[in-house]
Amino acid sequence: MVDRLSAPHRGPVPFSVEFFPPKDAEAEARLWRAVRTFERLGPAFVSMTYGAGGSTRDRTVRITGELAAQTTLLPVAHLTAVNHSIDELRALVGAYADQGITNILALRGDPPGNPLGEWVQHPDGVAYAEELVRLIDQLGDFHVGVASFPEGHHRAPTLEHDTRTLVNKLRAGAEYSITQMFFDVDDFLRLRDRVVRADPEQGAKPLIPGIMPITSLASVRRMAELSGSVIPPDVQARFAAAAGDGAEENREAVRAVGIDFATEMAQRLVAEGVPCIHFCSLNFAKATSEVLERLGVDASSALGATVG
């Protein structure tokens, strides 16, 4: 996957997109509309998330395989250790390999039901993402990435501990990392600096920022809460002013601010030399495409009738 980051691209830096497995036929149709739009825009890769405890495991494997077989996109499959034995993890990696998927994002994952709850290791599983990276590496010629956390993982006692954890995952064989969604570019830059200081060799590997064009204040607040992330007060105030004081937030105004804010973040990240920008799309194409358009990517012909 990493070689895609140095291939020719349409904007100032390559971009990538995160999808999640749809829950029903209608949502799956919406996903595929977004897929076809992004396919025309040429992302470096796309990733498919994996539900806590494998709750979307079969759907994840199937749709990621379809992305590999039916599109020109390069899919990266998320794989978590939650509630899986080592034998099950081996079988899942094999299922991906059978569908021609060799790019995997190795994650310890969140506890099912309550992402901020106690993490319990499967008695026959692995305890850390570092172990999962090593396991995948033993199973064949795979390209493995891991997660990183600009604010520090909510379970990490200190930022230094969080940095060591990321460095250890990279030393275990991960080729790159993608960050959790964040709202302050300085947090990302400080993370990048910490990794370089801790291990210059690992710090040279791509650290890809993950951002989301916000279209609903209520939704992003909930997502931040579940991930242990923090929306800075000034950012909260900016979106709250757009949302208004009514019983229902002003979605059109929030969306406009969300596109502006994502564009501002992306522009600064580009200026800071990031290797790629990873967009959390929520299976819609339009909002991300509008940000890309502002970054210099001609997205107008690809948008068509998509909404998001």
TrEMBL record:
This is Methylenetetrahydrofolate reductase. GO terms for molecular function: methylenetetrahydrofolate reductase [NAD(P)H] activity. The keyword Oxidoreductase applies. Keywords: Amino-acid biosynthesis, FAD, Flavoprotein, Methionine biosynthesis, NAD, Oxidoreductase. PANTHER family: METHYLENETETRAHYDROFOLATE REDUCTASE, METHYLENETETRAHYDROFOLATE REDUCTASE (NADPH). Its EC number is 1.5.1.54. Pathway: Amino-acid biosynthesis; L-methionine biosynthesis via de novo pathway; One-carbon metabolism; tetrahydrofolate interconversion.
